[in-house]
Amino acid sequence: MELLENGLDSILAIVVPLIALIAEIIGLFIIIFSLFKSTYHYLRVSLFHDDYDFHLEMSSGLTTALEFLLAAEVTKTILQPELATVLLLGLTFALRAAMSILLHAEMKTARAEKAEERREAKREEIREGKKAEAAQNKKAQAD
To answer: Nearest to residue 85, comparing CAs of 16, 132, 36?
Structure first.
């Protein structure tokens, strides 16, 4: 039985850091990819007056990356379940949770503002169409 426990401990000592490393690399890749993609869209918006929400792109990428980085931290604590490690994990989780909440709130606000802008543009389009229609009717009645 003791041999089995030692074998499992050895396997965990090898596999757990590997899993944590993979999760950290994925999180880092997501941050870098989001940065490049957001920069590309920022340049398009700035130079060509394109209509794209690059803030939402970056916020979404950061939120996803934070989830992977948190998973890596949780995985690391499997091998070191000491109080200091658990407290560090709790602090890390609290900070990342706060960041996620703030990013989600920002994304939700940005989406609501965009939706309101689209609704207002649609209303203005309808008003202009009604004005044009009224002008045509007035012209037709004058003829």
So the answer is: 16
- Burial class of residue 109, CB neighbours in 10 A (0-12, 13-18, 19+): exposed
Q: What is the mean pLDDT of residues 20-29?
A: 96
The string over 7-31, giving b where at least 16 C-beta atoms fall within 10 Å of a residue's C-beta and e elsewhere, is eeeeeeeeebeeebeebbebbeebb
Residue range 32-51, pLDDT digits in tens: 999 999 999 999 888 888 77
Distance from C-alpha of 21 to C-alpha of 17, rounded to nearest angstrom: 6
Instruction: Give the length of the chain.
Output: 143
Tokens 């229609």, residue? 133
